[in-house]
Amino acid sequence: MKLKQLLLVICWLGTQVWVSVQAQDLKQALQQFPDLKEKPAHEVLVLGSFHFNRKRDGSDVISKNHLDITSKENQRQIQELVKKLKKFKPTRIAVEWRPKHMQRLDSLYKKYQKGQWKLGKHESFQLGFRLAKMFNHAKLYPVDNRPPQLPSVNKLEDIEKYAASLDQTKLLHAYDKANKKYNGYLDNLQTKLYVRDYLLLLNSPKNTTRSKQLWLTGLVNLGVGDSYVGADLTGHWFQRNTRIFVNIRHLAQQKNERILVIYGNAHKWILDELFEAAPDFKVRQLSEFIK
To answer: What is this structure's pTM?
Structure first.
């Protein structure tokens, strides 16, 4: 064998050895990867709900139609739903109230426990109070938070003019048609589904994904350079929900906590994702308990 050919063979063999070593190194690196393999100590179930009482609906998209929560059939279904949720065995129930209103929440719950107050329409009452009483809970936990908007958003007087000034009008409205169709579809179903099926729909993987897309299309892209109005508005939503997540986490004060979170449906996707990233929590879903 000529010297040149011999050198090529040696180089080729050396390359194969190097590749083998590299592959072995990667395999070992993955095996030794510092994962968080902690066994979840707690469980959380985020029940995404429409607002049963329209007068307290603070959403930007307020339903034109509305499911009558007080109808005989819906009241029957709510009671059945609460019985199904009993299987989750919640140790604590968190609701969409701000901590500053804790005294009123406690007062109403105590009156309800004593049979001195007829349940109001709010989902915290219809679902939360009923289930808390069933387990003889001493209280429910208000975990909401409303952080202030960033100056970049507060200074904006006309979002359409701002978009036009950046030549971003088309980008701002890119998903308007699709998002309006989605909101209109959910709105229309409120007059066609009973409460059980409507809540199952809102908590389905399909709706959770679509709800996330609503936040990350159109508006989020508005802004450029040193002023990111759309990104700041979306970031504000993440900030609010991260604070809510922390408030809920602090409720896990004993072993094997099972926390039921009753919140507006728009919060579900992000709270689920936050808890899925928390190794000490196992995320449960409504469909596991209501077939």
So the answer is: 0.85
